[in-house]
């Protein structure tokens, strides 16, 4: 059942009264932004995560997945971060293993991703925009944000001790103007879907992951350099489990 759902061979029915989304290509990632000359760019490249024959590893990971409750503060590798982001943002790379290459999203093109790096080998600490199409991290702030992340996540140690924190954001006003008020709800579901893929990939690599929804919304944008018109939807912390 779990694997059938992942494979897309069974789907959840939506109510007939729900309007169809008018987003053209719901699975298309957002266009790459921050394409400025002089910006530090790091191309992420790593082999796809191996989910083992018949996706046995995926089933085991789904069954054993738990939100990590604390991190050591240790570093992860750039290759591990690359694999985690690849699984979340490039489902098409997993078609050969039998996974759905284009899972249903409301509007992935409306979601932007930023990553605060505190402990990733080979990456300077700071805040990066993740360009999903070119699979690049583009550095927009240069600083170790551990202390700020601790504060921004309402004093939760998870934010401080994570090796990386992934932020999904969206311009809610623009999304609602274009697609109606339901966009608010659906964008959060999309962020949850991405968060779950980040979680599963981290678990499969024997790393830790936990979502965080408790954070100071406006301060996150200001501190990390995220556009003020964007609302932060969801945070996923990644790191070495304690
Ligand atoms: C949307 C969402 C927000 C969450 N926010 C936090 C949070 O702010 N702090 C925290 O410690 N855990 C947070 N979690 C993790 C939950 O505590 C955890 O998922 C829950 O206890 C269930 O445990 P499990 O993920 O191991 O099944 C969040 C989880 C989700 C899905």
TrEMBL record:
Q: Where in the numbering of this chain does the Nitroreductase domain appear? A: 62-239
Entry-linked InterPro entries: Nitroreductase, Nitroreductase-like, SagB-type_dehydrogenase
Q: Which CDD domains match?
A: McbC_SagB-like_oxidoreductase (cd02142)
Q: Annotated Gene Ontology MF terms?
A: oxidoreductase activity
Q: Which domain of life is it from?
A: Bacteria
User: Which Pfam families does the annotation name?
Assistant: Nitroreductase (PF00881)
Cited NCBIfam families: antibiot_sagB (TIGR03605)
Xref: PANTHER family: NITROREDUCTASE FAMILY PROTEIN
Q: What protein name is recorded for this chain?
A: SagB/ThcOx family dehydrogenase
